[in-house]
Amino acid sequence: MTDLQIAKTITLKPITTIAEKFGLDSDLIEMYGKHKAKLPLKAIDRKAAKQSNLVLVSAISPTPAGEGKTTISIGLSEGLNRLNKKTTVVLREPSLGPVFGIKGGATGGGYAQVLPMEDINLHFTGDFSAIEKAHNLLAAIIDNNIQSKTASLMIDPRTIGWKRVVDLNDRSLRHVIVGLGGTTSGVPRETGFDITAASEIMAILCLAENLKDLKNRLGNIFVGYTFDKKPIYAKDLKAEGAMTVLLKDAIKPNLVQTIEGNPAIIHGGPFANIAQGTNSVIATLMGMSHSEYTVTEAGFGFDLGAEKFFDIKCQSANLKPKAVVLTTTIRALKYHGGADLKSLTTENLEALKKGIPNLEKHLENISKFNIVPIIAINKFLSDTDEEIQLIKNFADLNGIKIAVADVWAKGGEGALGLAQCVIDVIESNISDFKPLYQWKSDVKTKIETIATEIYGAEYVEYTAKAKAHLNKISNLGLNDLPICIAKTQKSLSDNPKLLGRPKDFIITVREIEIAAGAGFLIPITGDIMRMPGLPAHPASEKMDINDDGEITGLF
Q: Helix, strand or coil for residue 525?
């Protein structure tokens, strides 16, 4: 059966029942129908959260289809609950761009899903819409101020980096001109659209710890300069209050359920090749406040989402993870060993051997944070016993715990071995999290530490534009912000064609964007797409709905 067909066979429990299992009285939740709810921020208990065991699920460098971190995260949480460890899985919300594009939804797969699958993958509780509106409100306020004859801050339109956003893949909107139509229609200028998941407001929402913090961060969004070189922030336009009003409900995390009837929290959805790639601090703390174990995931490979999870989110919110589950697939290792994408379901031990250095590098990276890794082989039907054994031999040789996770087919039952590995690691109390760098280091040192230590680069080059941006960052007094490198997810390098474990390569920083509201700097490497396009045959072609409202083709 397809994921959607499996989801439809499950009889959902009332969300009030799930809330009570989570540890909250049903009167405290804000219901969105029978099976979704918002959780109040007052339900976060920092003292209790410190007692929870936080587990991060990451992955090796992925194939274009992804390696199933969400599926593993959900399956692991089911397995831990089966072993009588009260566990909550905390995930990001899906973006409509990938849902209708090539990757599909982000609610897991098979018998390791969060439900209601259709609602979560579509409009859910309206968080993305609220983020989109808050972002575009600031864009409208900026253009209105440029147009104004009485309240103008004299913003130089050439310095504005704030685009508009929409939660769809639409390449035609990447570069646009606004303000055409005469003097009453605004001042013409070049701009464009990003996808909503790439909005700085998405990143801000996922790092804010309460409404006050959210409003302060929104006010700190850097807009541009005046004609006399004075920096302008959103607070100078008096925009942060109204933007916070639009986000008053979106800041609350969403409670849903897994296939096996366990609590799941889904909140926020920043991309990991552009932003921090993890769910909100609020959602993570909410899960930790009411769970013995909290399982969360970070986008793309360990070099992207996980590094940012550790160096940005964990430092910002004072979180200390206890273990990392590294999602590994035989198909991805064969891909990194030189096998063609079309042949990944065919046994190829030689390509698998050649791809293992990619796995090896990610394991080395985990150790740099003083965290114990566990390899989870996300099992596919095409995997052979010989291929699985080859990876097990590698793990045994290096003293690393490993488990085959057959969660797509078996749900929590297929994750019992993995869950026990996680319990063993945490109860051994070996992990002692430490970040890769200190925020107070200078900007170049932080960039170069990530590039050389995590990516394996020989050194970093900066274009003239990037060097000018370093000066701008210094002049604005933002040197102490952490680093969120924008890089391809397809390679450890900034070149998507360098698969496996590339060596002796150079990382080139083309420019550095300022996300002062989110509280980080974004060095841009390679060609990063903030507004994806649709493939020749997008997933939307297979979607339909009948007269009874039954959806088909969603995955």
A: strand
Tokens of 222: 């850097």
The question of whether 345 is a catalytic residue gets the answer no
Q: How many alpha carbons lie under 13 Å from residue 298 in its C-beta half-sphere? A: 33
Active site residue 300: yes
Q: Residue 403 forms beta bridges with which residues?
A: 376
Low-confidence ranges of the chain (pLDDT < 70): 103
pLDDT tens digit string along 248-285?
A: 999 999 999 999 999 999 999 998 888 889 999 999 99
Q: What CATH architecture is 127-245?
A: 2-Layer Sandwich (3.30)
What is the DSSP annotation of 382-422?
Answer: T--HHHHHHHHHHHHHTT-EEEEE-HHHHGGGGGHHHHHHH
For this structure, is 171 an active site residue? no
Q: Report CA-CA distances (Å) from 479 to 140, 144, 298.
A: 30, 31, 26
331 in catalytic set: no
Question: Could you say which of 82, 133, 189, 380 is catalytic?
Answer: 380
The active-site residue out of 37, 49, 71, 125 is 71
Catalytic residue among 408, 505, 520, 555: 408
Q: What CATH class does 443-525 carry?
A: alpha beta
- DSSP class of residue 13 equals P
- Boundaries of CATH 3.10.410.10 in the chain? 443-525
Task: Label residue 187 left, alpha or beta by phi (over 0 means left) and psi (-120 to 50 means alpha).
Answer: beta
Active-site annotation holder among 92, 313, 446, 487: 92
pLDDT at residue 4, as a whole number: 86
Give the pLDDT confidence score for residue 3 in this predicted structure.
87
**Which positions ≥6 away from 460 have C-beta within 8 Å?**
444, 447, 448, 451, 452, 506, 507, 508, 509
- Find out whether 110 and 5 touch, Cβ atoms under 8 Å: no
Per-residue b or e along 137-170, where b marks 16 or more CB atoms closer than 10 Å to that residue's CB: bbbebbbebbeeeeeebebebeebebbbbbbbbe
427-477 pLDDT, tens digit per residue, is 999 999 999 999 999 999 999 999 999 999 999 999 999 999 999 999 999
Architecture of the domain defined by 3-125+250-428: 3-Layer(aba) Sandwich (3.40)
Catalytic residue among 69, 164, 217, 308: 69
Q: Is 439 a catalytic residue?
A: no
Given this model, what pLDDT does residue 273 score? 80
Residue range(s) occupied by CATH 3.30.1510.10 in the chain = 127-245
